[in-house]
Amino acid sequence: MTERALAIAARVEAFVRETVIPYEKDPRCGDHGPSDALVQEMRVKARAAGVLTPHILADGSHLTQRETAVVLKASGLSPLGPLAVNTMAPDEGNMYLIGKIGTPELKARFLDQLVSGDSRSAFFMTEPALEGGAGSDPSMMQTLCHRDGDHWVINGRKAFITGADGARVGIVMAKSEDGACMFLVDLPDPAIRIERVLETIDSSMPGGHSVVVIDNLRVPASQMLGASGEGFKYAQVRLSPARLSHCMRWLGCATRAQEIAVDYACRREGFGKKLIDHEGVGFMLAENMIDLQQAELMIDWCAGVLDGGSLGTVESSMAKVQVSEALYRVADRCIQVMGGMGVSRDTVVEQIFREIRAFRIYDGPTEVHKWSLAKKLKRDHARAHAA
């Protein structure tokens, strides 16, 4: 690991532990995430500490994926950490995508305000499941767009759009005659209406997750991201690193839960000795050590593949499965070790458990990634035996 990445990660960790963690009890943290006022208050402090958007350097270049891993893990030591230092989804993935695909004009208009931490963004891809819309299978997309002079007109419904309420920048996916397309839009826009904010198990993302109606949204042709029909390709440019970024951040959260559970087990007594001296407890915490180490190694390996120039769709699917499942086991064991204290909100472990449970679904459920990997095995087998 490079010295610059370790130095940045150390500054981020110190900031999260000393400045961000005390905000976890702030009443502005609600069921639909922390308020924008709270986010901006933390970002003012992050900017002053020199740790705002730490994965993007002053010249606009990004840390490598392996370097980013240690920085995002440090930011994830609190559910509020990625928000405070501007490494949170969906903004982090949207910044990456715009940086890769956007024109200089689009970067100046949309990307700069995200990198500076002044604005939030939303990614409008998922659609209502019971209406046959796109979810894990984006080819089912029902939101349509057509060219009208110098504009594109978009109509459809979207669901589970993280951070739509309060976002200033949107990336909207729709289907043209050529295929999937992406558009950058200013928010709010009267043609994009939030029907409701869903009540969900997680509570770490500002604005929550919304059901949205898009009614005759007119977007200048110059605000199409890339080319018409190339949207699914661009989605993979975003999603492969974004899956890995989720792994990085939640590794930090699970590490924090383990710290709290170990401290509890080393101080709490039961049946004549410290809890950690009971094999039933000590072994769970030891298994957590193993799962955390395996998750870190998987992240590092997958990051190396991405740094090598591959999109790493297969590798990121493997990482998403292994890491999300391992970290869920870690969080679950921490709850079990702490008993009644674990299910209470006296510590952040209860929230970490809820957030990581949702992580097993976000950016593709475990089962979808396994299915995708199984299809690859079948294709590889067919090619190997074709001769």
Automatic annotation (TrEMBL):
Its cofactor is FAD. Residues 122-200 form the Acyl-CoA oxidase/dehydrogenase middle domain. Residues 2-118 form the Acyl-CoA dehydrogenase/oxidase N-terminal domain. Residues 229-377 form the Acyl-CoA dehydrogenase/oxidase C-terminal domain. It comes from the Bacteria. GO terms for biological process: fatty acid beta-oxidation using acyl-CoA dehydrogenase. Keywords: FAD, Flavoprotein, Oxidoreductase. It holds the Pfam family Acyl-CoA_dh_1. Belongs to the acyl-CoA dehydrogenase family. Homodimer. This is Acyl-CoA dehydrogenase.
